[in-house]
Amino acid sequence: MKKTLILALMAVVLVATLGFAPTVGADRTNAEGKGTLTAQGDGIAILGGNGSVNISGNGILWIKDLAGDADITVTGYGTKKEFADGWLQYAGFHGSADVAGTRIVVVLAGVDIDLFVQGRGRVIFWGHGSYEINGQSGEWSMNPLSAHMRLASTGVK
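User: That's the sequence. What structure does it adopt?
Assistant: Structure tokens below.
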């Protein structure tokens, strides 16, 4: 429980301070093309953009629909809380979520994270794990900027 709380606080800080703005001097991996990402790991996964996200794991899940057009399906266990600024929080999350929309943000802080993403946007991983984006593989890092990449898809507008 203590580990999940620490990860949750770090996720909030990362989202608040980094947002999804490019960072000068960061070790970034940029990928262009079909825009498919798969990843597994423990830590924090922050995804934002246009497309679809299927994510599962255990921890705390946050979802925000910035455009108001997202299709959101969450299954499993957890306590749902809706905030006035539009964020949905699932504390004690143990399950999966499917989120699709034109401007979405999905954050999962926890363990056993498994995700599949198609679309255009950005992702930040922090912790331990692996990912593959458009056929290029990499490892999650304790440095949240090292796995900061852009997803791009010609099939999603």
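Strands lie at 28-30, 36-65, 71-82, 87-133, 136-139, 148-151.
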